[in-house]
Amino acid sequence: xxxxxxxxxxxxxxxxxxxxxxxxxxxxxxxxxxxxxxxxxxxxxxxxxxxxxxxxxxxxxxxxxxxxxxxxxxxxxxxxxxxxxxxxxxxxxxxxxxxxxxxxxxxxxxxxxxxxxxxxxxxxxxxxxxxxxxxxxxxxxxxxxxxxxxxxxxxxxxxxxxxxxxxxxxxxxxxxxxxxxxxxxxxxxxxxxxxxxxxxxxxxxxxxxxxxxxxxxxxxxxxxxxxxxxxxxxxxxxxxxxxxxxxxxxxxxxxxxxxxxxxxxxxxxxxxxxxxxxxxxxxxxxxxxxxxxxxxxxxxxxxxxxxxxxxxxxxxxxxxxxxxxxxxxxxxxxxxxxxxxxxxxxxxxxxxxxxxxxxxxxxxxxxxxxxxxxxxxxxxxxxxxxxxxxxxxxxxxxxxxxxxxxxxxxxxxxxxxxxxxxxxxxxxxxxxxxxxxxxxxxxxxxxxxxxxxxxxxxxxxxxxxxxxx
Length: 469
Ligand code: GLN
Hints:
Strand content: 5-15%
Shape: globular
Bound molecules: glutamine
Radius of gyration: 21 Å
Number of helices: 16
Largest sheet: 11 strands, mixed
Strand order of the largest sheet: 1-3-2-4-6-5-10-11-9-7-8
Number of strands: 11
């Protein structure tokens, strides 16, 4: 069901909030033994809240997400619930407060169903780096759902929740959405408060939204976006809201960088992306060929800066402040034992990489150079976007791959992020929407917009999914 379908049940009084909530919990019960999307469901508190909402008056019923259940990636805090970040080190950590996004959703009438599986602290593209087992792609149980929000994407694709929220740093909402056939938005950096989102790489971290359609994403965006005193990077002005439905794409200028179509892209995907762009052109949009050479370096820039930030953000997990503790004889051995046992291999790899690029002998050669390259890339995109309204291309260079196929080859795994890291580096909004299949598995079209033009990105994406055919 979409959010609108559920709302229709409420206005027609054909289902109660409790019945809708029970239906989702039953669906999770039925499917999740096979898929492994949820780490935990909050069945008791969800039912309690549903009953409260059923008993509530008209004021409550008028709220924008009244009685809408949702899934939460286990990196966003919900007060009183376990929040693990997919990591052994936080296995026993209980959140002391709720994230701003959660508070706003709950205040709007939404009900959190549970927390979903993910790569440890967001580090990964397949959900195989979770400390709590793999999640399977509902469309092919032998394949990964993408990552790091693979649990969220599997939950949406298997209709175990109508929407969900999760951190998107370098593509963690968009790429799994693409691999599972869902829609995923990464907002402009600062458009949605990061307060209560566990930090991975702070200058890239955003709270993203996943659903089966753009209308639902827009409904959630309207509720959670906007200024928040608790996040210093949050925008001071509210962004325009999507109009959805009135969008006319004639005259829309679509930038298509030639760098997106090199030999790293699986050839079978090219046709679908070209067909999607052609559909816009047939409705009067104008294709603008772009040549942005620095895009070839986007992945390298991201994989220097991101580990640098991950390595410093992971410092807080020392066994002294929160989470699990492995006892040592003295302070140093205590910290060492806790971190040694608590972190998985991928997080350790990034801590090592990050510490290396920040170390005295190498900071100029790697970190500072990457900072300058990021600025150059941002400028190049700004310049390119003077000639176009949006930039389109694939979300992922491949369709979902077999579980285990890339797990022992981190560099190949990192390559799956080549397109999603582009808007992440520049802080720009981007959405992934389904655009056909290859070998029966979904392909994602990534639409990136100008700074703060989240509404435009959603309008353009909505047009494609709803276009007359
Ligand atoms: N796959 C990317 C990475 O491993 C994206 C992570 C994210 O957005 N959290 O860094």
